[in-house]
Queue: 2 jobs
Job 1
Amino acid sequence: MKKRHAHTFSTIGFSSILIIFMSVAILTFSVLSMMTASADYRLSKKVAEKTSDYYLASNEAEIILQEIDSALLTLYQNTSSNTEFVSGIETALSDIPNLTITLNETACIAEYYVTINDIQSLYVKCTLHYPTTQTQRFYTLQEWKTVGSFSEEDTDQSLNVLGSE
Amino acid sequence: MQKYHHTRSSILLLEIMINILFFSFLVIFCLYVFQRTKNTNLETKELNEAVICVSNIAEFFYGSDGDSAFLYENYPDATYTGATMTIYYDEDFDTVTASEAYYEADINFTTDESLSSADIAFHALNSDTNIYTLSLTVHLPFTIETSFTQEETGGTVE
């Protein structure tokens, strides 16, 4: 009888301990899966926002390109030779902000940046020229790329080492 | 002694009942959390795939200088009216015909002087909520031909 009493006593509480361990395990798995899913979703949202930002900047760059092209078309209509056209480029494009014009012996290059976000910009570089055929454009795109827009001073180049203050 | 043993059994039974009740609540809560996780994962997958599909359309649009007919050549299963285009996707986000579609990308084309624009909205067929939207603008380059057209039409670029 004494032996049977001891056996019954040890059974009480065992199911509770089992349930507690199972609960902790299931709860941990569910919370971890939820956290992972939320983190993935936040990352996807960021990717979607970055993509939208890039295409917004692209649209803005296309509008600037249109302004350049319109100015060159007007210049072409008011000039009669290649030399006259090239010499008038700088004046014709002076109204377009943030546009850098570089004139050299071989080519005339226009460059500009459009901000994508805090750390990135869209860099556009095109060669401007006098069209010689009916279907030739007034410009040729050389570069259309995303570049980092932070300066050297903004970049944290410090390195934390042991013993440093 | 018999009475003592009966009390112990009752306590055990009560404990098991409380445990089952507690575990049932926990299972309900965890199932709810797992269901939400599944929905979030599905939304994440939809968003990722929508961004990829819309970006592909955008690159075709930019690459063709805003030519909607060129876009249609690359999506032959799409519905194209000239001013609008609908591209259909199945559950795996592969392009399919309208009858097999689960998702669709609606594109509205507009041309304003030398700017060609496209508004893309990606959504599930059974939902009006857009998963991802994108507006694109492309400049249609001028040529000497444009210059002649401009002179003929009195200064406006067609």
Note: The radius of gyration of chain A is 33 Å.
Job 2
Amino acid sequence: MKCSFCKHELTLDMVRDQGCGGCAGGCRKVHCPYCGQENPIPGRFLDRLLQREKK
Amino acid sequence: MAEQPEQQDKKIILVGNPNVGKSVVFNVLTGSYTTVSNYPGTSVEVSRGQCQIGSDRFLVLDTPGMYALLPITEEERVARRILLEESPQVVVHVIDARNLERMLPMTLQLIEAGLPVVLMVNIMDEAERLGMQIDIALLQEKLQIPVVGGALGRGRRGLWELRQAIQDYLPRQATFAYATDLEKDIQRVSSLMLGDYILGKRSLSLMLLQRDEEIVERVRVGEGENYAALEQVVNETIFARRVDLHLRINLERKRICNGLLTGVIVQQQGMQPAWTERLSTWTMNPWTGIPLLLVILYFGLYQFVGGFGAGTIVDILEGTVFEEYLNPWVIGLSERYIPWYWLKELIVGEYGLFTLGVRYAVAIILPIVGTFFVAFAVIEDSGYFPRLAMLVDRVFKKIGLNGRAVIPMVLGFGCDTMATVVTRTLESQRERIIATLLLALAIPCSAQMGVILGLLSGVPGALAVWMASMVGVFLLVGLLAAQVVPGVRPMFYMEIPPLRVPQLQNVLIKTLTRMQWYFMEVFPLFMIASVILWAGKLSGALAWLVQAFNPVMRLLGLPNEASTAFIFGFFRRDFGAAGLYDLQTEGLLDPVQLTVAAVTLTLFVPCVAQFLVMQKERGWKTSLQIFLLVTGLAFGVGWALNRLLLATGILA
């Protein structure tokens, strides 16, 4: 995924590393290490829905 | 192909930004004989393969994407470590022909580092389709390194030339001069370095000056006893240039790259989507950028969020679905099956879980926040926000911030709590304190703003008064804070990504994800707030609190019933805004009172969640000071506004 502010590429590792731990029920955002923008990560349900659409 | 020990092979290292076709270059060079493994000591994957070019056999390494030699992420650290430790025969820097201007600064850094660079300008076919003609020979002449143009993803265009360039590579070293003062600094540092390094001393000096920890460690080891003297000069230079060192280095590289690209790219007339570039320039020029910003605010926030979200959708959900169908049905069920007063009150009473908590969350807040997130995602996906950062940079500098603060400020319109967390990305403590204060004071969250836009748009002039009050307080408090809060004023620099038409799928994903996250967070809190208010009502504590607020309400010229909206507001800003919605629909406020209540409630204390985050980020002392200042200012401004409106007869 790309950061929605600066458009730098974000990897899944960053999603794991950059979560601030502030979200109840797990982190659903990734902080871009380049600009600080909070990028939303689709939750499990939405992710499954998107995957199904892709197939 | 038989496996050979890696040590016998010369090495080709592929580097470049993500999504420039590095892996395609890797695949066409190596074929199918590749392995993927984690780089030692990290979870970052590196692909390795082999290829034969002429009589030489090469080990090819595909590094993770990197944007600059100065790393920020783990991937970039690994990519640089490979450059530092693998002693490559050739480094192939793969760049996207469509974005030469953004990617060439890294080429410059690689050349500066003394690495054996071959530049592969990939995706030429797409660039040509956009009407760009790139003079590869001229670029090669200017850079003094082999430059190959091609489109390896389609038809392997440029593969032969790339293999030839690798085979014929001869080391040459070009030097690109920075401004005189920077050159003196680089010279002063590099002349003191006595050790042997893989990277050039010029490059190492710049990274030392930018406090690259890994380079500092390597140089400390490389210099031994000599390091102390070197460190002193580095520290002196950093201190002397503490305000703008990063900015100067970046701007100098940009200037050099602009010079290098002069005459290299020719844009064919009529083929370029020139309107995006023209629009991009207009968004950053104050004369055109401010009217454009007002247009975006008018259609995006006022019409779409305020008119459609807070008006049309809330009317349908709250006025029809809840008031006419759901509420009577649930109340009827409770009357029939629940004999206990306290339980009926808890579920369907004045502050009931269903009649207050669910109704506020689902019928009032969610549609407003949803429409806000749609507007936000459209603007975000278009690439407008970095341009907004450039536009407001000058004004923000006056209030002790810079363009970088656009991120927390804009996020604050979504939710001030998460925006307060994001203030940690600002460079100095001073900026973080000022941004936290302004977020707590004058940035309404989306739900609060949506309700207020919806309510005030029905009263001529009220919205203008509210907006003028917010902008006035924001600028005045910012200007004063910039004078009072001590600290340095960092410069602001950022690359501007291309402007583009927002993609429907991106907008949908972002909106739905944010709405899901928001609802999951807000719903339990609304339920808890309902229970607390219910307990307060039954115990009499709420009546006491409302009574305590009554003199303040009278000072503001508001009816006593308005106390509840302020008490709600402390639980959550959006809860308070929904309370204001109820007061207005019950006809308890005249235009002046509505405007005063909206201004005071917007400025009023941060909600519990925001206060807790403020405390976590800024500490007890600062957060309590901000809390007291905001409370005093909110009621002070509300009182003054009421007096002013009554005296002048505006909105009467």
Note: Chain B has a mean pLDDT of 87.
